[in-house]
Amino acid sequence: MQSILNFTRVPRRLAVVLAGLFAGWLSEPLAPGQSTNLVLTNASEILALPADRAYGINVLIRGVVTAAQPGAEWGGRFFVQDATSGVFVENIGTNQPTPGDFVEIAGISHPGGYAPIITRPRWRKLGTAPLPEAKPVPIEQLMSGIEDSQRVEISGIVRAFRSRGAVIVFEIASGGYRLDVNAPPSEGVDPQTLIGAKVRIRGTAATFYSGQLRHLITVSLHVPRAEDFVVEKTEPGDPFNERVIPLDSLAQYRRGREPGRRVHVKGTVTYQRLGEDLFLQDATGGMQVKCSMLEPVTPGEVVEAVGFPNFEQFLPVLQDAVFRKTKEPRQEPSIKAVTIPELQGGFRHADLVTIQGRVLDNTERRVRRPGGGLTGQQTVLTLQNSNFLFSVEGPATTIGDEISAPIGSLVEVSGVCLMKIAEDGKLQSLLVLLPNSTCLRILQAPGWWTPQRLLLGLAGSFTVLVVSLSWIVMVSRRNTALKVSIREKEQAQIGLQHAHDHLEERVKERTEQLKLQITARQESELQFKAVLHERTRLAQELHDTLEQTLTGIALQMDTASKFAQSEKERANHHLELARNLVTQSQTEVRCSVWDLRSRSLEQIDLAGLLLKISKQLTDDTSIKVQVNAVGRVRPLSELIEENLLRVAQEALTNIIKHSRATQASITLDYGPQNVILTIRDNGVGFVVDQQAGPREGHFGLLGVSERTTRLRGKVSVVSEPGKGTTVQVIIPIENLMDLGLIESQLGAQL
What we know:
Blueprint: H1 12-26, E1 39-40, H2 43-47, E2 58-67, E3 78-81, E4 86-90, E5 101-110, E6 117-128, E7 135-136, H3 139-143, E8 151-164, E9 167-174, E10 177-183, E11 198-210, E12 215-222, E13 229-233, E14 263-273, E15 277-282, E16 285-290, E17 302-312, E18 315-325, E19 336-337, E20 352-368, E21 375-385, E22 388-393, E23 410-421, E24 427-433, E25 440-444, H4 451-562, H5 568-594, H6 599-603, H7 606-618, E26 624-631, H8 638-659, E27 663-670, E28 674-681, H9 700-710, E29 714-719, E30 725-732, H10 733-749
Parallel strand pairs: 1-2, 4-6, 7-8, 10-12, 19-20, 22-24, 26-27
Antiparallel strand pairs: 2-3, 2-5, 3-4, 5-6, 8-9, 8-11, 9-10, 11-12, 11-13, 14-15, 14-17, 15-16, 17-18, 20-21, 20-23, 21-22, 23-24, 23-25, 27-28, 28-30, 29-30
Helix pairs in contact: 4-5, 4-8, 7-8, 8-9
């Protein structure tokens, strides 16, 4: 929306060319998939469009024209604002509304160079209306670019002005910022009298931007009417009639000092860069006075200047100044010889000094004199003093009359000291401005190693290089003969390599044979382990099934014989139980032989089967057995249920045969991390370390331990004489997943 602003700082011919290019840009096709059915009816909707979606959307708004200037610079463009916001209208043509016109605009949206705009407009005037109320905004908010195209109000101090066409461009300082304000001239008001005045301005904000990057550069203000440029306070009188301020006290405390007011200084001219600045010196020190006046002065003349005190690089400077010569006689400026350490903290800034240094570099550049004069030549030297590098800039002279100093020479320069210091007062850079060529004096010529001698040295080096090349050619011939000998040795080495490769192939073949033998041996060992494992398992099965069942049969037969004479029915009952145990024993032996799962496990869960076996083993005994299942009861693998059942059966058999207990309990805990089987009794107990083992023909606890180890669990036996016995088996859940796979692999090996 700000494309008109890019025309305000370029020649008219370039503006016409850019307008043509901009017209071609506006004729580009819509973005792919862009819908044209949507119609935007207020300015805020246009500004809210993202840049990648702002192409070709229909626009129909009504608003008041807030800024429009006739002439080729604007080329028909204008700003319009409705009740929601303001927006720029890219109206390329001679037909242009004036500020205060109430218009209706039909066009399409475009992302613009910085913010969305309206382009290809068709507008018509509906009447006139008062300009929208200007919104007071902080200067920081205005300079951030967010108030683009809006009518705003700011306050500031007039620092300078220049005429451009039908408007006057005032440079306004506010809150550390400077911006251009384009305003129509006020009748009967000399703009020169407004320098230093405090003003309040109402206008439309416009931005300067980088078109390719869409980056903000600066902001300006367009004032449509003279009454929108309000002068609140002017300087009380001619600042040249004010008291002269010593140069060194410009940045010091002064009681009653008013911010934004010009000060009056006087001093002797030490140097002038025409159209840019001049340097003054009085009895207290020096000062840089920035002034765009093209009136030349010579060193030694006494002048008065008024300007705005400010700081640059933490050093005082007089900005936007004007000066006039006095009738006082010429005075010779004093020159102070200094060293680099004496300049720390900004001492002697803008003063006339003499300093020494050794020349490290000498460059020349062409410069154009102010006002479009002839092109001059300027010399810039790089000097070193106390390990500090600084620059010396000579005056712009005609070609052939510039200053010169050989590189490596020790020189003394006399000129204006222009410094940059850091916040801590340390010297960052130093530039010495020489008023004329006589201000440079060579104290010591360069050392023996001059450019001429350097050329001689290069010639000698070239001679040595030629001799070296000759020697290299001779050596290369000898190397040729040596290469022939090396080639013969390489042929012999190739033959040796073939023999080596053949040997490696034989070694590989033998290695493969050894691997096959080792693999066969490992398979044989694995088969042996599988057979041994199966033998152990069958022994445990026979012990846990056949022996325990026979024990139960013996108990039932003993009981039947006890009641055979007195209670035949009861004796027959126990005989029937013994017969059932014989049938069960046959089934279990057959299952053990064929490695099948117990048929009882297919019909009853593990807890129910434990209860059934407990009743069979303890029927008509004095032992009462209680079976409990704790936790979330769930089916376990065939291997786990079978082994836990045999462990519980072995424990009950031991209780019946040896413990003389009256009560026993079996607890099966289905925990989240472990499955725990616990068998307790209140029998006579025993000393754990002294119990009978396999040597005495007792394999019960050994079988319990082996079955638990097979399940990768832990078994513990706790007993004391007279305090009963507790057998506990803990099987971790994380080990249960792999047990079925391990068992199936062992079966496959068998």
